[in-house]
User: Fold this.
Amino acid sequence: MTLPEKPHAGVYLHLTSLPGNYGIGEMGRAAFDFIDWMKSAGLKVWQFLPLGPTGYGDSPYQSLSSFAGNELLIDIDELVRMGLLRDIEVRPLQNLSRDSTDYGRLIPAKRALLTLAAQRFDRVADSTLSMLFDEFLHRHFDVWLKDYSLFRVLKSRHGEKAWHEWDTQFAHRDSDALEQATNQFGFPLYSVAVTQFLFDRQCRALKRYAAENGIEMFGDVPIYIALDSADAWSRSEIVRIDENAKPDYVAGVPPDYYSEDGQLWGNPLYDWQYHDRTGYAWWIDRFRHAMAYADLVRIDHFRGFEAYWAIPYGSETARTGAWQPGPGKAIFRALRDGLGELPIVAENLGVITPAVEELRQEYGMPGMVILQFDASKPGFERDHVDGNCVVYTGCHDTDTTQGWFNGGPGDVRSPEEVRQEQRVILEKTGGSPATIHWDLVRLAFDSPARLAIIPMQDFLGLGSEARFNIPGTQANNWRWRVREQQLTRELSAEIGGTVAGAGRAP
Assistant:
């Protein structure tokens, strides 16, 4: 895929960070209003994080499924309009914070409402809605929905434990035990299916509205799946685990400037020989599904397709890992043959070898540039930014630009390194500490990159209090939300003027 010839600008905001009345961002009025606000600001692209259901830690990158949607994003107001819920029933969610997401309180309350909505679905649904539900089942049941529904029900029945800690007959997928469970848990399975239908219906409607208003939706596909996922449980052959779900090696990255021990992610590695024998069919299904909700997608940790860091299972750090060859061109050849032109942006951050860049460029995939990482480097404009890339001030894993400039929490730089980088950036932008977020926005917009994406926090000039995630930590991530009163006409006008001045207006 190539980016549009005319330069465009966009915003980085996960759907959970939208404003709203029910404790978390949803695919309802606030999402549609945000598209209107983007359009008024001259922004063309809305980038968000993976949309799968989250497990322990609430991370979008540790999803319970590569195909299912995050039910927490379902718009409650639409369920009320449909007659699936009543106003009085949703009031407990209105007592939750509108400034951040309290997952501990939100999850049980919202899941209870979704179960209640599923109980009423048959009675409320008219013939058209029932037909659409049947079509949804026909498309997805055998591909992923049957296994995912059973996975979620069994996980609930086992106290939300990881599947390899379930009763043996379920962990090992004994056919008689699974059949008995399917017969026994009729409504809970149906409830999961109805919930996924509602997610799919709302997400497709949001994408249609975006297209009608000239906005492109930019999604995200993590390279790895979680061990505790419906994918690993129902399709264990796709990853390198034994009959007891024990991996031989797990994923991560080696030590670098940012971490002397590297990063130990713990995801199981793929059995690439299996995927090659099957023509990468699972991957084709996965990307086909992702493209139902997005116009283009980012592949997280793209370099893992060329070579990946394999860490022996049980290691305490990533230091003990070694590079192993990935599938390389074979997977992208199969994806192109199965799906046509690849609407993919490659996350090529970190230590990237010439072989990784050769793979990316052969298939025309744009790369990424993060100004917080690269803007202070010598030869920045010449060596780091070209037309076929997406440039960012920061991303979901970095601090806000104000927080980064001031060396906020989680910063691995020494105080002297922070001061040195401040001097370089101020000299390069001609700006000031108070306006550094706008200075980097203008630097991104004035770059040759045909797409410039700015986190919402940087448009607002927020500090480290608005950081979305600190890698390597578990607590208080993925919680920040924008407030409705922050999305002002004045801000959209300021953004619009900057976009137009840089020649990036739609």
Remarks:
- The mean pLDDT is 95.
